[in-house]
Structures are given as structure tokens and as C-alpha cells.
Design a protein that fits this description.
globular; 313 residues; 11 strands
Amino acid sequence: MKVTVVGAAGGIGQPLSLLVKQNPLVSALALYDVAPAAGVAADVSHVDTGSTVVGYTGNAMGDALKNSDVVVIPAGVPRKPGMTRDDLFAVNAGIIMGIAKAIANNCPNAMILVITNPVNSTVPIVAETLRAAGCFNPAKVVGVTTLDLMRSRAFIGEKLGRDPKSVAVDVVGGHSGTTIVPLLSTLAALPESEHLPLTEKIQNAGTVVVEAKAGKGSATLSMAAAAAYFVGRVLSGLSGQPGVRECAYVATSTVKGVEYFALPCTFGPRGVEEVHDSVLSGITAAEKQRVSSAHSTLQTQIKKGVDFVKSKL
């Protein structure tokens, strides 16, 4: 399958491209960036796997996107100290809308994986842009929230003295601040007294990295690792592997009052084939309150993305 990375020369894009090149389900890897991507492509092409690698830049985004099965979008400006994800909106909204238009023109049936922040708003921007072009398929547009799952497993594994990969936990809601809701009550081994401090640690993890990097970037390496894992899982689903279940931020009508929500999904040949909202049943009162708070914030952030596209049409 052909995978295109849009924003391949950036802090997330470079390690992401390297990791995706190692996936045996990838037959062709197209790397695009407004900055010259030829060097990244030449470097990555030396990894000894069977996929071809071509770099594109400038006005060649359409060429990079043609015939893509999966488009991964880490393009845009990273968060800096003192910035919220909403502060990124003014810059990244226009970038993501331009990419969505190019996708509509060159690979409207591709699976689109959005990393660019603020994901809670950029996914609606992609969706509304495709809708205006007459090619929006809700099963093919998702926000990548895998880093929230990865952080949850890492922090819970550390707390319990377990291998993080043995930790099974869902994270629902959105992909920023208090919209990130890990469902910790499903972990019998985790005392309830640990739920709130661990939830806050997971919600604030991105800010911790931004501040630690002191103006020189955000979570790039862990995000690349999380995104590469998610790309691999989506490719497995597209290729027909059964039982591919991962959390993602998707268009859904299962959560009343919001058009998008992060939930566990089953991925298959058609993209998102099932959204598992049943995980919201049986959660604790505290988790219900966190979901309610996320719901309220998401309404505003989704509307911001939708209104941006409408203002540009």
C-alpha cells in the first residue's frame, strides 16, 4: 500500500517516516514537505525494506498524494512554551485545510490520519473541507490519539510495576487537556486513589514535554512512535486482518451533542468499521464527570473548526 506523509521534514515527520518505512505492508512511501524533503527521502530510502521512497516539495503535494491508500498529516507548527493547542489554531487551521483540498483532488478515497494540533479542531476542518468537495467519508478521517494511550500505559505500568505493554486501557474524549479521559476504573489492580493523579498526569504530559524542551519543540519522538504504531494497525485493518481495535478521534453520532469523539474503533478494509461506545457504560461517577467536561469543551473546539471552513468557502 502507498503511504504519504505530509510534513515529512519536521520534528514528527522525520522519525515517523523512518518508522513507517520499516512496515512490511508499505510498498510505496511518499514524503512531502514545504521544506525540501529530498534529503529525508534519500536518507530513509537506505533502510533495507522493500518499499520505494520518493520526496516531494513545493507545489508537488498533489503528485505525492496521487493514488495514496493512507495519508498521515503531521504538518504544521508545533506548540511552544505558554501556548495552548488553541493558540496553534490560527496558524495550523489554514495549513490543514489546504492539505485537505489537495487530498480531495488527488486521493479522495484515502484513509486520512490527522496528527496536526489542535486535533479536536483540525479533524473537523479536514471533514468539512472534504464534505464541501463532495468526498467526505466518516470512516476514512481520524484523529491520531495513540500517544494518549501510550502515555497511559507507560505511567500505569510504572505505577504498578508492570510491563506497560501488558496494560489494557481505553482513553476517550479528545486529544488535549481535560478532553483526554483515560478510563482507569477498568483496571482492577489500580487503586481508586490513584485515578485522579494519574488522569491529570496523562492530561498534562504534552505540556511537560513542551516545557522540558524549553522552546525547542513539543512531543516529537514519542508522537512519531505512537503514530507509526497507529499507521501499522490501520494498514493491518485495511489489508483484512481481523480484530484491529484502537482508540481514535472519529466522526460519530453515538455520543449525543458532539459530532466527534475519541473512542475505541475496529479498523478494517473500509476504514473505521465499528465505533465501540459501550466502553462508556459502567464507568465511575468521577469518569462520567470527566466525560461530561470533555463533551462541553469539545463542542466549542469542534465548532471552531467547522466555522473556520465555512468562513473560507
